[in-house]
Amino acid sequence: MDENDTAPRKRSKLRVSHILIILLLVGIGYFAYYRLSLKSKLRAKIDAIRTAGYPVTLAELDRWYKIPPNVENAAYTIEEALSLYKSWDKEKSRSLPLIGRAELPPRTEPLPAEMITLITEYVTDNNEALKLLHQAAGIEHCRYLVDLTAGFGTLAPYLSDMRNIVRLLELEAILHAEEGDGAAATLSAVSGFGIARSLAREPLTISQMIRSGCQNSAISAVEHTVNRIELTDEQMLELIESVRESERISDMSRAFVGERCVGISFFGNPETLDPGLGGGSIPFQPIIGLYKAIGMADSDMVIYLDLMEGYMNSTQLPLHERQRAVDAVSAKLQSTSKAHVLLHVMTPALSRVTTLELRAIAHLRTADAALAVKRYRLAAGKLPDKLADLAPKYLQSVPKDPFDGNELRYKKLEPGFVVYSIGEDLSDDGGKEKPPRKTKESPTWDITFTVER
Q1: One-character DSSP codes across 70-104
Q2: How far is CA 333 from CA 246, 311, 326, in A?
Q3: For the segment 417-445, what is each residue's pLDDT rounded down to a tens digit?
Q4: pLDDT-derived band of residue 6, with 50, 70 and 90 as boundaries?
Q5: What is the distance between the alpha carbons of residues 45 and 315, in angstroms, rounded to a whole number?
Q6: CA 371, 374, 380, 383 torsion: positive or negative?
Q7: Which of 64, 203, 273, 439 is deepest in the core (most CB within 10 A)?
Q8: What SS3 state is found at 451?
């Protein structure tokens, strides 16, 4: 064969290989650009968070959770009270209300003698802890000794009994109300609000949810007390101040700040994910290493920071607009490609956190308005026709329902009255109370504060 016949084929092969090399270089260049672009986006977003005054690393978060120097720290006294708290075993506590499975009688009926005996024993067993709890509740500042640099591994052992010690205070208030001691019952309820306040600055979602639960226990103590005995105007003013302070310090954005720092730490080092999530049979670390190398972890973090910005922005909206805003953020997460595996695995359902916050604020506002009604009746000898009658002497204005932005509802009963919020279902059920136990029918209900006397 003539040499001239083979030359074009060689040149053709050279051209194909050149094209492949060029395509490879273009691919490498595009990938490098993609990775650099992601890094640039991340830097810009993280810099913006810092500029806004928020922490971005776990070490910064730990320093951010602080109290003024040289002030008394309520955490020391509360943790000492927790060390003295005597929880009963499961069998013995079963017959206790709130702590066990026993239910309190209807609000206007006296406690059975055997229940009084049991509550008295439980309170007496915990007298030393109660003294410290009352003392701690009066301390303004609190910073628990928790190491937030541990991220997902953060240990907060004091949280496990926090609800029970506030329930202990609630039982103490119930016992004092049964004895007709309004001053002591008021003190127990106020202390319940104070212990809840100790968690107000803690940037952990679980801490903020427990704080809300503790507030609800304190409100229940108030509701029980005003249904059993008549309080003085001064005692009701003391309770009102505790209720209003609880709303003033309510700030779920701190939970979002903490979540964001943990997320940034995780997506920056996804190797910290528990290998057990892979089922044990999957070569976990190599897969995570590849996931990170191709930029998926950075891409997840960009999306995650956008989502968290949406959650943070929701806390600046009027209360009744927040749920719709966080639901939209959650919908955005759900619509994100399932290829973002770690994003879907590790991003919590924070829309539910907002629901619980709004519910807690609704409880506080119904209690505030109900106590104002009680003060009006104490002075005027009759119930107001409407909540607007309480302004401006007893209420600056009628509190808004955090779920729909309208005024709280009020209805006279025979005897008494109910103040209520329509709740997250946005259905006005006429002040229907939540049943004490879940039912199969899951009936709708309102968030109520009821006085039947």
Answers
A1: T--BHHHHHHHHHHH--PPPHHHHTTSBTTSSB-P
A2: 32, 12, 11
A3: 999 999 999 999 999 998 876 665 557 89
A4: low
A5: 19
A6: positive
A7: 203
A8: strand
Query: What are the tokens at 180?
Result: 């007709």
Amino acid identity, position 37: S
434 within 8 A of 366, measured Cβ to Cβ: no
**CA separation for the pair 436, 416 (Å, rounded):** 21
Residue 190 has a CB neighbour count (10 Å cut-off) of 24
> CB count, 10 Å around CB of 230?
14
**Cβ contact 133:195 at 8 Å:** yes
Q: What pTM was estimated for this model as a whole?
A: 0.89
410 phi/psi in degrees, rounded to 5: -145, 135
Helices first, then strands: H and E counts in the chain: 16, 3
Residue 449's beta-bridge partner residues?
Answer: 419
Mean pLDDT of the chain: 90
Name the E strands within 286-439: 409-412, 417-421
> What is d(CA 178, CA 159) in angstroms, rounded to the nearest whole number?
30
Which residues, 6 or more positions from 241, have their beta carbon under 8 angstroms from its beta carbon?
Answer: none
Strand ranges in 257-339 using DSSP code E only, listed in sequence order: none
Q: What are phi and psi of 430, to 5 degrees?
A: 70, 25
- Helical packing angle, 319-335 and 350-380, nearest 10°: 170
| 132 burial level (CB within 10 Å; 0-12, 13-18, 19+) | buried
Are the C-beta atoms of residues 371 and 193 closer than 8 Å to each other? no
* Amino acid (1-letter code) at residue 63: R
pLDDT band for position 396 (50/70/90)?
very high
The rounded distance, in Å, linking the Cα atoms of 209 and 280 is 33
Read off the DSSP letter of residue 266: H
Instruction: Report which residue type is found at 404.
Output: D
Dig out the tokens for 211 from the structure.
């704080």
Write the single-letter amino acid at 236: M
Euclidean distance between the first and final Cα of the chain, in Å? 115
